[in-house]
Amino acid sequence: MTTAATMPAPTGTEHLGPPRKGPTLWKRLRSHAPGFISLVVFFGIWQSAVVLTDPNPLILPSPRAVLEAFLTAVEDGQVWEAMKASAGPLAIGMAVSMIAIPIGLLIGLSPYLDLITSPYLWGFYALPNISFAPLLILITGFSTATSIWMVILSAAVPLCLSCKDGVQTVDGSLVRAARSFGAGRLSLFVKVILPCAMPFVASGVRNAISRGFVGLLSVELLIGANGIGGEVIQSARVYDTARMLAFIFLLIVIALILVSASRRLEVWASRWREEVVI
Question: What is the pLDDT of residues 158-209, one digit of tens each?
């Protein structure tokens, strides 16, 4: 007969069950299956339209012609040269745009700075950035500096606004609780405000990368600079539609990679919120 003295004491972990495992390879493949199937269907419809209608290759080349044009550009080294020419201004512009993070946090902490800067920030955010391209060309000429400044102008403002909003949406009860335990200004910022604002910062970085990439391509398409956008406009000028579509698809792939990487950053920054969900 088992007595209460000999019974094992409850540990409080029996109800938790086995530890959760990460997604298996099959689950990952199944989650990506709809996207892959839709891509196959898209190219199937495209090829069927080419076979049935036999359009002018200048208007609608076949998927095979686009693939051959892309492989030719890879063999000639044009793809790598274009990617390097676009990656440099994008990387420099995004690195400089990161200064918008502390500026946005500072504006969010100060109501006076918010009142002064918000009309300008939101007005600049609503203004199409391509409208600054002629002025940038007049100042910097047809150079790499034009692309870098366009990336900065496109990325810095939305990043600053997102950081500002992140500070201003911190739960007031958390701030009051930290102050009741004697937290100073620095400790309050580091331990309460900054962790709560991190998801907004990561989301702002994701948005800044997208807008910076669009700004870079817009100025490349406008001035025909060296880069992926420049290759697209040069192909269009010589009516090489297959090559133009090949570089457009390359743009799509690069954009998807950038968005996916920034999305992982956003998930990482928000992981503490997911851990407290019951």
Answer: 999 999 988 888 877 777 777 777 767 777 777 777 888 888 888 888 888 8
CATH number at residue 126: 1.10.3720.10
Query: Taking CA 253 as the corner, what is the angle to CA 28 and CA 37, rounded to the nearest 5 degrees?
Result: 45
Return the closest-CA partner of residue 228 out of 88, 81, 91, 129: 81
Residues 11, 23, 210, CA angle at the centre, nearest 5°?
A: 120
Look at residue 74 and tell me if it is in a domain. yes
Number of domains in the chain: 1
- Is 8 inside a domain boundary? no
Domain carrying residue 166 = 61-273
Distances (CA, A) of 43 to 63, 66, 241: 7, 11, 17
Identify the burial level of 217 via C-beta atoms within 10 angstroms of its C-beta, where 0-12 means exposed, 13-18 middle and 19 or more buried.
Answer: buried
